[in-house]
Design a protein that fits this description.
The chain has two domains: 67 residues, Arc Repressor Mutant, subunit A (Orthogonal Bundle); 123 residues, Winged helix-like DNA-binding domain superfamily/Winged helix DNA-binding domain (Arc Repressor Mutant, subunit A, Orthogonal Bundle), CATH 1.10.10.10. It is built from ten helices and six strands, in the order αβααββαβααββαααα.
């Protein structure tokens, strides 16, 4: 085999391999092993200004994307994130009772919540601070945003279904108010739930009292 053939063999083996190739395995494929380093240097130089480079890691050789292209080839993907049941319940309470404080949300749900629910809803853009309540500690109040209205196809917050409408649709039969909003959220394909927090039935009337 001539030099050009040896070069082509090394190039083809490295290019077609799904994993880096050990140097000894490459040497076994050519007849003039003493020129191995010369062949490799030629390949390195040939690919030095191309989209892929020939690189050595330990005793292994492989083609890697040129570092010069890392910014161009960076792919950003929008990943769908599933909200927890606690976050959905929090969103429902804020939507119906805004402006509402964190403590009031916890009182309605009957359980304490971590910062995750509020943080996730803010990150999505569905809720935002609405000022501070004139009470001891002046706690922050929360309300929904225009993005929330756009996502759920509402012209304004008053377009949310009333308690009577929910009852007429059968949503409130033998279930909590939060379960009702959860079902509506499922129709919008925004979440699947994992935890078992449930609002006490005695809080049902208070939950949608605005409507």
């Amino acid at each position: 085999m001539d030099d050009n053939t040896n070069l082509n063999i090394l190039e083809a083996i490295i290019f077609s391999s799904t994993e880096p190739v050990h140097e000894n395995d490459l040497k076994e494929k050519i007849n003039d092993k003493n020129k191995f380093n010369s062949y490799i240097d030629q390949l390195i130089n040939f690919y030095s200004n191309r989209g892929i480079n020939l690189v050595k890691t330990g005793e292994y050789w492989s083609f890697r994307t040129s570092p010069k292209l890392k910014d161009v080839l960076t792919i950003q993907k929008n990943q769908k994130r599933k909200l927890s049941k606690a976050a959905i319940e929090t969103l429902a309470i804020i939507a119906y009772m805004q402006p509402v404080t964190r403590a009031e949300v916890e009182d309605i749900r009957g359980v304490q919540m971590g910062r995750g629910s509020i943080d996730n809803l803010m990150e999505i853009g569905w809720i935002k601070p609405k000022g501070r309540k004139n009470s001891p500690g002046r706690p922050t109040t929360w309300g929904t945003t225009d993005i929330f209205l756009q996502h759920f196809g509402l012209d304004n917050i008053n377009d949310l279904p009333s308690k009577e409408e929910l009852k007429a649709s059968g949503f409130l039969e033998k279930r909590s108010a939060i379960s009702t909003i959860t079902d509506l959220a499922k129709e919008k394909e925004i979440s699947q739930f994992n935890d078992n927090d449930i609002i006490p039935e005695e809080n049902l009337d208070d939950f949608i009292s605005n409507k």
